[in-house]
């Protein structure tokens, strides 16, 4: 049974993320688990996510309840940067993929800094893309 579609193609946040992600060498988009994912062999970004609430402050949800972040992105982050990013309230630990090095950035928590998004997507791409695609990016 396929996952339900959990996004709207006319979402401006998705459009901006799509423009950044698809601009990377060899990048393509496909819907995965009902959400747009951006791939360069492996996934390096996704639009939308969810998290299990572990600490209720800042959320109306009770601990253990799933909270959806439909206007957000997920990216893989370097282990050395994770602790610093998690100090920022805009970031969340995404369900299912957080343990594999991913973090979510909530686009509704503050005005989106698209230069920061570009840097995060670039860094995530570099963590998962084949060497030849990273070399192509560096030549640009």
From TrEMBL:
InterPro entries: YjbR-like_sf, YjbR/MT2646/Rv2570-like
Recorded superkingdom: Bacteria
Alphabetical UniProt keywords: DNA-binding
Annotated Pfam families: YjbR (PF04237)
UniProt entry tagged with the keyword Metal-binding: no
A GO term, aspect molecular function: DNA binding
Protein name in UniProt: MmcQ/YjbR family DNA-binding protein
Native species: Mycolicibacterium hodleri
């Amino acid at each position: 049974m396929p996952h339900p579609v959990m996004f709207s193609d006319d979402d401006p946040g998705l459009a901006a993320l799509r423009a950044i992600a698809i601009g990377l060498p060899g990048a393509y988009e496909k819907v995965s688990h009902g959400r747009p994912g951006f791939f360069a062999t492996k996934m390096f970004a996704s639009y939308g996510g969810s998290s299990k609430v572990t600490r209720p402050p800042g959320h109306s949800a009770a601990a253990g309840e799933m909270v959806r972040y439909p206007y957000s992105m997920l990216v893989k982050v370097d282990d050395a940067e994770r602790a610093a990013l998690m100090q920022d309230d805009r970031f969340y630990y995404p369900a299912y993929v957080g343990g594999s090095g991913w973090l979510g950035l909530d686009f509704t928590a503050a005005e989106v800094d698209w230069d920061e998004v570009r840097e995060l997507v670039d860094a995530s791409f570099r963590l998962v893309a084949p060497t030849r695609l990273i070399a192509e990016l560096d030549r640009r």
